[in-house]
């Protein structure tokens, strides 16, 4: 019976994950205000949320979502090209284009969908894609879907990217360079001025995934604005689900590129528009990011308070990795912190390369100074300092 083989297939895969300490358990996590969550009846201070500015629970953002939901309903009902293109999108796309200083912006159902839609539209079989080896899964998925030749360069190594372009660029028609602006699991910035210069020199198109940059670095405008240098990133993609506190993905680019995406990006054309409340929440949150520089500065300041306490290089974003090597160590460290009242999720392969399992600590404007001091003290205990781990 085919059902039998299907379940056997699934059980075998799960057993293999378990043997390698890679099976994941989803746990029910109830938000309990700010960065507090409840798990199994216990209150924990979360350092694992990407809600870097606390906007998901901001009263103005929540009120905008509720008002739009009451007025326009819970769902969009159709793709944007049919009847799902709510007027609320006009303000949202304008706010995004303004913050990223581009001609236009196009909003997708999620960040993942933005990359799955945009990349295969901009590159195809005769083209070349260069991608940072640590770039997010959805950049790689988009690259594979494109059927272009995909070459990886070592993490943040612009000179390796340069060498690849020197050798390979002439054999291909168009070329895309893909990187995260702020790396999601390491918190470091990509060398964007160098990559932009390379792109200019070799007629390549630079796309940055700024999921962890918007609202946090570059005065809240993202990684393209985080350097004392003048350069252009023609394709600035990101998500509305992290610092913006809502849901959805975007690509900021020229009017021509955005119009092409609206016409032909499959994940845009064949997927339903966002719920009105989600759109209204995102626009309200972006206005707060534009107008409240103190709030925007806070997550990076807290991350630097943390790296300073451990004599580490100053954090470049709101994300700080705490490397532990094996999955077993990462699981044990997370459990030890949970006992002390902190939720810091362990990150294991394949999200990070083998041998680099870690705690990924993310800081939010919604954390108090005491929250951060408490986490620092908890991590200063011997059991969490793994020999050989270089933090
Ligand atoms: C979270 C994330 C995404 C996906 O965004 P969603 O809107 O959650 O689908 C894309 N890229 C990076 C780097 C991310 O961290």
Describe the 3D structure.
This protein is of the alpha/beta class and 391 residues long. It is 42% helix and 16% strand. It is built from 14 helices and 14 strands. The strands form three sheets. It has a seven-stranded mixed β-sheet with strand order 4-10-9-8-7-5-6, with helices on both faces. Strands 1-2-3-12 form a four-stranded mixed β-sheet. The protein has a three-stranded antiparallel β-sheet with strand order 11-14-13, with helices on one face. Strand 5 (128-132), helix 6 and strand 6 form a beta-alpha-beta unit. Helix 2 packs antiparallel against helix 11 and helix 12 (293-309) packs parallel to helix 14. The longest helix has 18 residues, at 2-19. The termini are far apart. Residues 110-112, 136, 138, 180, 184, 209, 211-212, 239, 241, 249 line the site of pyridoxal-5'-phosphate.
Approximately what portion of the residues adopt beta-strand conformation? 15-25%
**Helical residue percent?**
40-55%
Number of helices: 14
Coarse structural class: alpha/beta
Mean pLDDT across every amino acid position: 95
| Main sheet makeup | 7 strands, mixed
**Bound heterogens, unique:** pyridoxal-5'-phosphate
- Low-pLDDT stretches: 387-391
Compressed to H and E, one letter per element, the order equals HEEEHHHEHEHEHEHEEEHHHHEHEEEH
| Radius of gyration (Å) | 21 Å
Shape: globular
Strand tally is 14
Distance between the termini: 52 Å
Strand ordering within the main sheet: 4-10-9-8-7-5-6
């Amino acid at each position: 019976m085919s059902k039998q083989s299907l379940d056997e297939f699934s059980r075998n895969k799960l057993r293999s994950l378990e043997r390698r300490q890679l099976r994941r358990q989803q746990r029910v996590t109830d938000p309990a205000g700010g960065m507090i969550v409840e798990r199994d009846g216990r209150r924990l201070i979360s350092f694992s949320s990407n809600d870097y500015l606390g906007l998901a629970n901001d009263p103005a953002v929540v009120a905008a979502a509720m008002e739009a939901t009451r007025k326009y309903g819970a769902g969009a009902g159709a793709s944007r090209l049919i009847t799902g293109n709510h007027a609320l999108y006009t303000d949202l796309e304008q706010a995004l284009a303004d913050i990223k200083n581009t001609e236009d912006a196009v909003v997708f159902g999620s960040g993942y969908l933005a990359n799955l839609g945009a990349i295969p539209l901009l590159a195809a079989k005769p083209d070349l894609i260069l991608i940072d080896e640590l770039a997010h899964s959805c950049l790689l998925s988009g690259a594979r879907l494109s059927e272009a030749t995909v070459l990886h360069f070592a993490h943040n190594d612009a000179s390796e990217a340069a060498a690849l372009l020197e050798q390979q660029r002439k054999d291909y028609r168009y070329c895309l360079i893909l990187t995260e602006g702020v790396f999601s699991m390491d918190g470091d910035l990509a060398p964007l001025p160098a990559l932009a210069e390379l792109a200019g020199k070799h007629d390549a198109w630079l796309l940055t995934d700024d999921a962890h940059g918007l609202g946090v670095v570059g005065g809240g405008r993202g990684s393209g604005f985080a350097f004392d240098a003048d350069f252009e990133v023609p394709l600035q993609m990101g998500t509305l689900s992290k610092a913006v506190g809502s849901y959805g993905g975007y690509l900021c680019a020229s009017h021509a590129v955005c119009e092409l995406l609206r016409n032909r990006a499959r994940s845009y054309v064949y997927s339903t528009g966002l719920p009105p409340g989600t759109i209204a929440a995102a626009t309200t949150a972006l206005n707060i990011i534009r107008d409240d520089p103190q709030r925007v500065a806070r997550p990076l300041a807290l991350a630097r308070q943390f790296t300073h306490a451990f004599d580490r290089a100053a954090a470049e974003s709101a994300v700080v990795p705490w490397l532990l090597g094996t999955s077993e160590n990462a699981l044990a460290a997370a459990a030890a912190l949970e006992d002390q009242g902190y939720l810091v999720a362990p990150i294991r392969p394949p999200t990070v390369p083998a041998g680099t399992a870690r705690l990924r600590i993310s800081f939010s404007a919604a954390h108090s100074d005491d929250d951060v001091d408490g986490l620092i003290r908890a991590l200063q205990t011997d059991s969490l300092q793994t020999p050989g781990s270089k933090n």
